[in-house]
Structure formats: structure tokens, C-alpha cells
Amino acid sequence: MNSIQRLTKGMKRSRHRNIRVLHVGPGYGQKGGIATVLNDLRSKADNLQSLGIKTAIFPTRSFKSATNILKFVSTDILRFIHAAWHADIVHLHVASRGSLVRKGVIFATAKVMRRRCIFHVHSGDFFEYYEGAGAVYRAAAKCMVRHSDARVVVSSAHRDDMLKTFGTTSLPTVIGNCAVEAERACLSCAQPIDDGRYVLFAARLAESKGLEELFRAVRELRLRGLCVPLKVAGSGDTARWRGLAETLGIEDQVEFIGWIVGESKIAAFARASIFCMPSYFESFGISTLEAMWAGRPVIGTVVGGFSDLVQEGETGYLVPPRNIPLLAERIGELWSNAARANGMGKAGKRAAQKKFGSAVIIDKYATLYRTVCH
User: pLDDT at residue 10 above 60?
Assistant: First the structure.
């Protein structure tokens, strides 16, 4: 029995009136930040249930093939109507581009059904993409934002972006992500392992994640006589990035370990000395939170969700995007001062528990749903 069926049957049997929430987001094996958030919410369904919130997840498919588009039009909309029939709230988890198009169709359907809707932005480039998009796309996004019953963003920076871009009358709710798997694993480990001595990067292998700048910073440190090993975790055009490492002469320092999950991910973070992701934009940065749970100092950029996660000089460092000299300096500083790096890592773990523990985040979701329904 899937989550939608459990929602339907559970609500019919329940004596007490729960708030029934249908989450809409990527499924069918898709990877990425929203998929991780939905998996975390799925794992905490019982916790939400104890707070009077009954949840289910409606998976959407990507539009990367004509077959998927046909299935979305011919079957998924009907499946959504059936699922939403038993929901009080439709919670739309939105990125940019095709994600907004899919959610736009579902949003319109939900509104016709008179369901309350929550518009939840996850993508780091959502607002930047909106500014350069066509008139139809912009009109659809504006309609969804303004006619939703609540708007949610994952960071304070995105709250400001939403207010500036759409001028919403009500203040968007900020709900950061949690990292359930990392939290569970790292709370059971009293001390960081730190036997690997490498810098870890974990994200999509994309230019926007600052991977080229990271490679060039590693090269700059090498020219100064400091050889820093780098492990690159993530999926993408590995051949391109391997070629860049060879061009820069750092191929012997860079190891590509692919997309990591489960125990492999936990081990990669636990054995690293530093986590570094110098993104051009970042809505939240769940890998950053995973590093904090592992007790690792973080080097990120002064964009998006990093400012909510990283306390400058206390749990890590934030540098301007594309600033290779400063990036190299910060990596070199922490690499050469293990005591300072470990102190930052411990402070980061405490911050993760206080601000982004799963109990804290789940309570924020429950408060949001009660507010929307009452």
C-alpha cells in the first residue's frame, strides 16, 4: 500500500480530525535537494502524525522525455485528483524551469478542487531564472505565489528575494531543511573520525556549484607548496571536470567518488577534514548541513542559505563567489590548523542540533499547517 492509499484509508478510520497534507514533488528515482527533503519528511511521517498531521507524497516525473510528458497529461493529473480529493492542503515543492510548469498544472487543478495550496521554493536560482524568463512563465509563477494560501522558502535570503520579486502581502515562512540520515548517524558518534585528511565537495558536478574555482584554489595552494587532497562526490559530466583537473596539473590530488548515499555518504563526511562548496547561488545547501552534523568546518559562499547555516569564523568561513585567492586562503588556513578546524566543526554540530534538528523542523511544518487551516 502506498502513502496515498494509507492517507485515504487512515483518514476514513480516524476518530480525530487530522490535517491531511499532500506533498507534491519529484519521484520516480529523481535525485537532488527536493527529493532529499521529501525522503526526510517521509521518514518523519509518524512524528507529524503525533502532532495531528497526516501526510502523503504525490510523485511527479521530469519532462526530459516525450513519454514522461504524455504520462503526466494522460494519467498523472487523474491520479493527482484522486489523491487530492482526500487532502486539506496541497504542498507544492517547487524548483525553476520544468518543475514550475508541472506544479503550475497541479496548482490550477488543486485550486479548482478548492484545496488550500502551499508554494514552497527550493531552487537556488529560482528568482534569477524568473527575472529572465518569458512572459507566460513569469505570469504563471506570479499567479501561483500570489494565490497560494502560504509561501515557504528555505532561507532568510530567499524570503527577501520573494518579497522583492513578488511583493507578497504576507511574510513568507522560512523553514530550513533537516538532514535526518546525517543527524541519526552523527548523533550516535561521540567524536568525529577525521582519519582521511581530505577536503570534501558534495553536490551536482555543475559550474554553478563553484567546482572550477575550487580546483583553481587547490592548484594555487599547490603552487604555494601545500598539497591538499580533494574528494569530489556527485553526478554530472565527470569527464569535463577530470579534464580540468589534468589541465591544472592537480589530477593526482582529485578523486571523483560519484553520487554517494547511505553509509558511503556518512563515511565520506565523517572522514573529511573540511567541507567546501563555493556555489554561485544556493537556496539552502543540504550538503552543508550534513557536514555540520558530521562535525566538519564548512567553507561556503556569501549567498542564499549559507548565511543561515554558517556562522562566519565560528563554524566555518564564507567567501564571495568566484574569489579564488580568498577561497585558497581559507582552505589553507583550516588545513594547516587542525585544532581550529575541529573547534569549528564541533560548533557547527551544536548549531545543527539547535537550529536544524528534525524535531525543530517538523514542529515548524506542523505550525505552518495549523496556521493555513485555521
Answer: no
